[in-house]
Amino acid sequence: MRRKLMNLSDAARLVRSGSSIALGGSIIRRTPAAFVRELIRQGIKDLHVLGFPAGLTTDMLAGAGALRRVEAVYEGLFQFGMAWNFRRGVEAGKVEVRDFPETAMIARFRAASQGVSFLPTKVLLGTGMAAHNPEQIREITCPFTGEKYHAVQAATSDFTVIHGYVGDEFGNVQLPVQRDSDDIDPIIAKAAKRLIVTVERIIPHEEVLRQPTLTYIPHQWVEAIVEVPFGAHPGSCDGYYDEDEEHMLYYQECAKEPGRFKEYADKYIYGVKDHWDYLQKAVPMQKLFQLSVR
């Protein structure tokens, strides 16, 4: 096995402006927030994002003027309200959007994971959504029964970035025994052409060998793995820490106005040299212990 451990800056440097990028996680849960902040610091622009429920990371990209298009099932900050940067971008015509129901988006990622160009689904029948997105949704007829379906285009992207729990230096990523299970990151990871994984902790390979059934992303899928503790902050990471409600509320208030978001970004994105500097500025030591659920 080849060693794939990188630092955050080098891993983010793999992504180029104009790329399509699938982002894992769910709204404010286990999103690759630290990675996205590093992309913004490096000046990456014109990104085409594919997500399941999109949220904090997509909104940060919109606020930084780095977002061109989003294909997802939702965009918001869950209990914290609107994704204001995203909304402004869409209303101003700077961000293009394609909406999909959850089951249709899962079918798209499944198609990419299976190496096929589409999968059939019935969930869009009667909705009229195909008329608004003929490039990715087309009506087809089953060759066996004559039934009507919609073919949804595979969700392929240049890069895929997810935030995981633990992994070894070779890129084997493991789930904890107790976790929330309502995500599709394993499918998104399998669909990847070039997969970058940030994890809360790098563990010895021997630990992976002791519990191989916990490995949900094998090393051969992974191009780079990065150790990023609290890498989803100010969001949560299941079984590790809760969302930082105080910071999320502050972020949401700042995102309401372009000028205030610039102040936020100047302090927490552009005004830090790396993720460790961000943590020191954004999360006092006492707060780290308060957020932790381990």
Termini separation (Å)?
A: 31 Å
Mean pLDDT: 95
Rg of Cα set = 19 Å
- The appropriate CATH architecture is 3-Layer(aba) Sandwich
Would you tell me the structural class of the helices and strands? alpha/beta
Q: Which descriptor suits the 3D outline?
A: globular
Give the percentage of residues in beta strands: 15-25%
Strands, total number: 14
Number of helices: 12
Helix content: 25-40%
CATH class, named Alpha Beta
Here the CATH topology equals Glutaconate Coenzyme A-transferase
Element pattern in H and E: HEHEEHEEHEHEHEEEEHEHEEHHHH
Largest sheet: 9 strands, mixed
Name the CATH homologous superfamily.
Glutaconate Coenzyme A-transferase
Architecture blueprint of SSEs:
Layout (H helix, E strand, L loop, with lengths): L7 H5 L7 E4 L9 H9 L5 E5 L1 E2 L1 H8 L3 E6 L1 E2 L8 H8 L4 E4 L2 H13 L3 E4 L7 H4 L4 E5 L6 E6 L5 E9 L5 E2 L10 H6 L4 E8 L2 H6 L4 E3 L4 E6 L17 H11 L2 H11 L6 H8 L2 H7 L3
Parallel strand pairs: 1-2, 1-10, 2-4, 3-5, 4-6, 10-12, 12-14
Antiparallel strand pairs: 7-9, 8-9, 10-11, 11-13
Structure explained in plain terms:
By secondary structure, the chain is α/β, with parallel strands linked by helices. It has a single domain, classed as 3-Layer(aba) Sandwich (Glutaconate Coenzyme A-transferase). Helices cover 33% and strands 22% of the residues. It has twelve helices and 14 strands. It has helices spanning 8-12, 33-41, 56-63, 84-91, 102-114, 129-132, 185-190, 205-210, 245-255, 258-268, 275-282, 285-291, and strands at 20-23, 47-51, 53-54, 67-72, 74-75, 96-99, 118-121, 137-141, 148-153, 159-167, 173-174, 195-202, 215-217, 222-227. Strands 1, 2, 4, 6, 10, 11, 12, 13 and 14 form a nine-stranded mixed sheet that branches. Helix 2 runs parallel beside helix 3 (56-63), helix 3 packs across helix 4 and helix 9 crosses helix 10. The longest helix is centred in the middle third of the chain and has 13 residues, at 102-114.
